[in-house]
Design brief:
Elements: E1 2-8, E2 11-18, E3 25-30, H1 40-51, E4 54-60, H2 62-65, H3 74-91, E5 98-103, H4 105-117, E6 121-125, H5 140-144, E7 150-155, E8 169-174, H6 184-202
Helix pairs in contact: 1-6, 3-4
Length: 203
């Protein structure tokens, strides 16, 4: 595991790199709004991806690196993410397909930046479809805008809602709520099975 820092338009970001033996692709994973690398679903996805031959970069946004818990505005999160993706793609993962992903807020960033960042696929862990109790504030358009193969792993009791599947979007419900801690083996299976299929498409 290697830690690197990346300068972005909104401060210093940090990435924790986990190498796979093969390196068929690289998965960049972002954290939730108030969380970090320690979320169990991110750890689970990292282990699963590296076993599948995918390098993983856990990306920490500049506001977290600076010690703030309140997230930056969406446009700043997206700009910082794209800077990190470009830097890592050139320095560490040249000529490899990039998969964008993350949990909760990080999943939203991955969706919003997938096209501009040239992502080959997207992984969403606990996508926050709407704030709890506020289905009128639907964020489904962020998912719908993604045109590459997409996986959404969602707790079956997630108060942030349940995204619908689509032609290029697979939604896997697993036991649990927004934290996705109740059955990490189910999260691992969902990610492993989807990666097995999508790597054949993007290799």
């Amino acid at each position: 595991m290697t830690r690197v820092e990346v300068e972005t338009p909104h401060g210093t970001a940090r990435a924790e790199l986990h190498s796979a033996s093969e390196g068929r692709a690289a998965l960049l994973l972002g954290h939730g709004a108030g969380g970090g690398f320690g979320a169990e679903d991110l750890i689970c996805a990292t282990r699963t991806a590296t076993v599948a031959g995918v390098h993983v970069a856990l990306v920490e946004q500049p506001y977290r690196v600076a010690g703030r818990r309140a997230p930056a505005p969406a446009r700043q999160l997206d700009a910082a993410w794209l800077s990190v993706a470009e830097d890592l793609g050139q320095r560490w993962f040249p000529e490899l397909p990039l998969i964008f992903g993350g949990r909760s807020s990080g999943a939203r960033v991955a969706c919003r930046t997938a096209e501009e960042g040239g992502a080959s696929a997207v992984v969403c862990l606990a996508f926050p479809l709407h704030p709890p109790g506020r289905p009128d504030r639907d964020r489904g358009a962020e998912l719908d805008a993604v045109e590459v193969p997409t996986l959404v792993v969602q707790g079956d009791r997630d108060p942030f809602g349940e995204p619908a599947p689509a032609s290029n979007r697979e939604v896997v419900l697993v036991p649990g709520d927004h934290a996705l801690r109740a059955d990490t083996s189910a999260v691992s299976r969902a990610v492993a099975e989807w990666l097995g299929r999508v790597l054949r498409l993007i290799d």
